[in-house]
Amino acid sequence: MSTSKMPYACFLMLAVLTTQTWACMRRGPQDKKPVGDGNSVPSLPTSSSGVSVNACGVCGQPISVTIIASNQIQEPFFEIQTAVKGHPQRELLHQLEVAATQDRRFRFVAEHFGSMGYMINAINGLSASTQNKTYWRTSSHIHVDGLALGISSYIPNDMEIIMFNFTSYATPDNH
Ligand SMILES: *[C@@H]1O[C@H](CO)[C@@H](O)[C@H](O)[C@H]1NC(C)=O
Ligand SMILES: *[C@@H]1O[C@H](CO)[C@@H](O)[C@H](O)[C@H]1NC(C)=O
Fold first, then answer.
1. 44 within a domain of the structure (yes/no)
2. pTM above 0.85, yes or no
3. Which residues does the chain have with pLDDT short of 70?
4. What is the chain's alpha carbon radius of gyration, rounded to the nearest angstrom?
5. Which residue's alpha carbon is nearest to atom 2 within ligand 1?
6. Distance from the Cα of residue 153 to its chain's centroid
7. Which pLDDT belongs to residue 84?
8. Distance from the CA of 137 to the center of ligand 1, in angstroms?
9. Where is this region: Disordered (predicted)?
10. How many domains is the chain partitioned into structurally?
11. 155 assigned to some structural domain
């Protein structure tokens, strides 16, 4: 008798509304320290010389990527595209967060699968469905057969065109 299949799955609705990821904000010596309001977060590291430091250990060089989400199999069809310009090179999830911030059509829903990281459930309100055997397939112009890693692990290259393509794995036999 099986209980829930996903005792460890952490369901997260990612409503991406913020304009910046705190982890990548740079603090310079000119930044004003918050005055003791009791709610301020601990200050990020600053060097004793007053040189600004990067509080994030994983942020790379600024890169630009294009993100496309396409659905040609279920009405209403759509193809949306946005350019994410000048953001640090890091995992695709973060580029997608920026896309959702600058274009509300890219708002997405993801589910966390432990070590596999986040899997996309929905983009632009269109959800994957086990009933319809549909999912959001991820590929890019240099990995046309699909990304080998999930959005939490794959790190796009500069100028890469990332594609989320709504796809069906239904066949005449399993439909
Ligand atoms: C399954 O596909 C049909 C036809 O495209 C659609 O109307 C329906 O909403 C889909 N069901 C789910 C659960 O996504
Ligand atoms: C996207 O999916 C549609 C429908 O399955 C398919 O016809 C099309 O070739 C796919 N496009 C890419 C770039 O994979």
1. no
2. no
3. 1-59, 175
4. 19
5. 132
6. 10
7. 98
8. 17
9. 28-47
10. 1
11. yes
Instruction: Match 């959800």 to its residue by tokens.
Output: 127
Instruction: Output DSSP code: residue 96.
Output: H
* Residues facing residue 80 across a β-bridge: 69
| CA dist., res. 94 & res. 99, Å (int) | 9
Q: Are 110 and 121 in contact (CB under 8 A)?
A: yes
How far is Cα 85 from Cα 64, in angstroms, rounded to an integer?
A: 4
Q: Is residue 31 part of a domain?
A: no
Residues 71 and 128: beta-carbon distance below 8 Å: no
Q: Measure the CA–CA gap between 45 and 48, rounded to whole angstroms.
A: 9
Prior bond of 76 cis (ω within 30°): yes
- Say if 131 falls within a structural domain: yes
- What is the 57 CA–ligand 1 centroid distance (Å)? 43
Q: Is the CB of 72 under 6 A from ligand 2?
A: yes
Domain that holds residue 137: 7-15+59-175
Q: What is the CATH number of the domain that holds 108?
A: 2.170.130.30
The whole-angstrom distance between residue 149's C-alpha and the CA centroid of its chain comes to 13
